[in-house]
Write a structure and sequence with these properties.
572 residues; alpha+beta; BirA Bifunctional Protein, domain 2; Rossmann fold; 3 domains; five-stranded mixed sheet; 15 helices; 31 strands; RNA-binding
Length: 572
RNA sequence: CGGGGCGUAGCGCAGCUUGGUAGCGCGCCUGCUUCGGGAGCAGGAGGCCGGAGGUUCGAAUCCUCUCGCCCCGACCA
């Protein structure tokens, strides 16, 4: 491809709207252009990379027996009503009516469609197991898109669905998908961390997310430095920490704590660490007040709490709701609570005794709060947020670390959530009717591309791994008007292409500085420069984008050198 | 949906406080010169100042409403 013909233009300055590195570079390098919030056009360079990622995905999915299909984006709402998701999913599901006034949706995922398909096709156990996948546009009217391609409202997802006769078969297949996922990401130049994940609105019995650890990631992940434990912070847990226990429980007594409402203030005022306090956090769970008791130094994990309460409608309770139950904000007490309030305690209430807690009276707290003070505290569960430095729940000496990650993919053991809702059965070899078991597996393709840039770049631009680079090499002609030199470069361009290499040829009448800077920005793996100076040095200059070193190859052997270098750097 | 920020030429921005119908840098076009890390000179094109309404003799500038974009939070395969 001649750069003079390429439909793309670079920016000299960083686009103001972009914050994350990949967003900046994708715009700056002329790879994507925005159409609206979270909606982008892929220009030729980005599309070539996207296609390479897709090709890798297809190879790996085919390798584990996947069969590619393509399902519709436009779905009758009826299907989604069948599984209940038409109602349960919020406005990120785009709903509309067709010309005949039938309710329709734009698919944000394809469990409904594929499960319906399966129920029409599956008759016998002989057809099981199988796995279908597609790479299809997904529409999600995200409440908040951001970060360029990292989180968008219309995107490409590889989604796969496997169907099994029993759980054992799903359990056997699931690790194969896991391995295929690792291969896909590694082939794209990423080394993701697979973490145990919350299943969210998808449901199911187990799931893993594949996290690319970078600062710009939206998720918090937790991992152990000793064993393999890794989890999304949403559902991570830790082992009981070391804590102080007084030899005996004392009787509670009130202490004056004027104008000290936050745990921090109270602890400082009374001269105790926050771990010796018990704090109260109120939630509105679908209109009901829930009182959460948790040790003062630990944060409530709302995902865990929501899972425990089996609700997705969970917000901090407003003053109205508190007042209604006669609770004094800032001094709320886990003692003497009205019967109307549900109490949920984090397991950390057992990590110590004689705590400081609220007195439910402005300006007062109580000393020596113990679990025995309130017999109504019976729900003691793990709803705390894991902190960096906490002890690993799985091994002896491990310490947990927290980091940020981009969710590249997510795999689920769905079980029968959808096959139950849609009655998908098969006949076993005894002629008995059995429920089909499902797994589902997603990868965000554009997000994966963004993640590659987040990981592979420097201050001058992208540094593509060859596997997903839009072209293999960037050929620069510094002919300065010399027709001979130009002819040599044209000849080399032809030879490189004839050798099967994908070449981006900067044939523009631009100054060397512009060409070098654009080459760095585009970030193709290898830069090949032909100029008066390079000829004087003995041929053409070869420079890897990822390295500072420059090698000279004789002009008549340039193609061989290029191939050798590219092949040697094939794996990034 | 809450909180914050921003909409002026393709990109980055100034002008707005103190109203007088728009400017800078880069990019773009033409010519000449130049040619190894974003060249020089000369000439040129390009903007209903996001939109609507209002105040005013007069609005990019003041007021009201609205739309869009970005960030944080809520939310979220």
């Amino acid at each position: 491809m001649r750069l003079s013909q390429l439909f793309s233009s670079t920016y000299r300055e960083d686009p103001a709207e972009a914050q994350t590195i990949s967003h900046k570079l994708l715009l700056k390098a002329g790879m994507i252009r925005p159409l609206g919030t979270g909606i982008y056009t892929y220009l030729p360079l980005a599309l070539r990379s996207l296609h390479k990622v897709m090709a890798i995905i297809r190879e790996e999915m085919d390798r584990i027996g996947g069969q590619e299909i393509l399902m519709p984006v436009m779905n009758p709402a009826e299907l989604w009503m069948e599984t209940g998701r038409y109602e349960s999913i919020g406005s990120e599901l785009v709903r509309f009516h067709d010309r005949a006034h039938r309710p329709m949706v734009l698919a944000m995922t394809h469990e409904e469609v594929v499960t319906d398909l399966a129920r029409r096709e599956i008759k016998s156990h002989r057809q099981l197991p199988f796995m279908t996948y597609q790479i299809q546009t997904k529409i999600r009217d995200e409440p908040r898109s951001r970060g360029g391609l990292l989180r968008v409202r219309e995107f490409h997802m590889k989604d796969a669905y496997s169907f099994h006769a029993d759980y054992a078969d799903l359990d056997r297949y699931y690790p194969r998908v896991y391995d295929a996922y690792m291969r896909i990401f590694e082939r794209c130049g990423l080394k993701p961390l697979a973490v145990e994940a919350d299943t969210g609105m998808m449901g199911g019995s187990g799931s893993h997310e594949f996290m690319c650890l970078v600062e710009s990631g939206e998720d918090t992940v937790v991992w152990c430095d000793k064993c393999g434990y890794a989890a999304n912070a949403e559902n991570a847990t830790s082992r009981e920490p070391l804590f102080q226990m007084d030899p005996q429980e004392l009787d509670p007594e009130e202490v004056a704590t004027p104008d000290r409402e936050s745990i921090q203030d109270v602890a400082e005022f009374l001269g105790v660490p926050t771990s010796r306090t018990m704090k109260a956090v109120f939630y509105n769970a679908g209109g009901n007040l829930v009182f959460v008791v948790i040790r003062g130094d630990i944060e409530v994990n709302e995902i865990k709490l929501g899972n425990y309460l089996r609700t997705t409608e969970l917000t901090l309770a407003g003053p109205d709701l508190l007042e209604k139950h006669g609770i004094v904000a800032g001094y709320a007490s886990p003692m003497n609570l009205p019967e109307s309030v549900r109490i949920v305690a984090d397991r950390s209430v057992g990590w110590g005794n004689n705590f400081i807690a609220g007195a439910n009276k402005p300006g007062f707290h109580i000393k020596n709060f113990n679990l025995s003070c309130n017999p109504r505290i019976t729900d003691v569960v793990d709803i705390g947020t894991v902190r960096s430095g906490d002890l690993c729940p799985r091994c002896e000496n491990g310490i947990l670390t927290l980091g940020r990650g981009i969710e590249l993919g997510h795999i689920f053991k769905l079980g029968t959530k959808y096959t139950d809702a849609m009655n998908v059965d098969y006949l076993d070899d005894d002629g008995q009717r059995n429920r089909v078991i499902m797994g589902c597996y997603g990868i965000g393709v554009g997000r994966l591309l963004s993640a590659v840039i987040e990981v592979h770049h420097d201050e001058n631009g992208i540094i593509w791994p060859r596997s997903v680079a839009p072209y293999d090499l960037h050929l620069i002609s510094l002919d300065a008007g010399s027709e001979d030199l130009r002819a040599e470069t044209e000849k080399l361009y032809g030879e490189l292409q004839a050798a099967g290499l994908a070449v981006l040829f900067d044939d523009r009448d631009e100054s060397p500085g512009v060409k070098f800077n654009d080459a760095d920005l585009y970030g193709l793996p290898l830069r090949v420069t032909l100029s008066k100076r390079s000829l004087k040095k003995g041929g053409v200059e070869l420079k890897l984008r990822a390295s500072k070193d420059i090698e000279i190859a004789p002009l008549n052997q340039a193609v061989g050198f290029v191939r050798a270098i590219l092949d040697a750097t094939n794996l990034v």
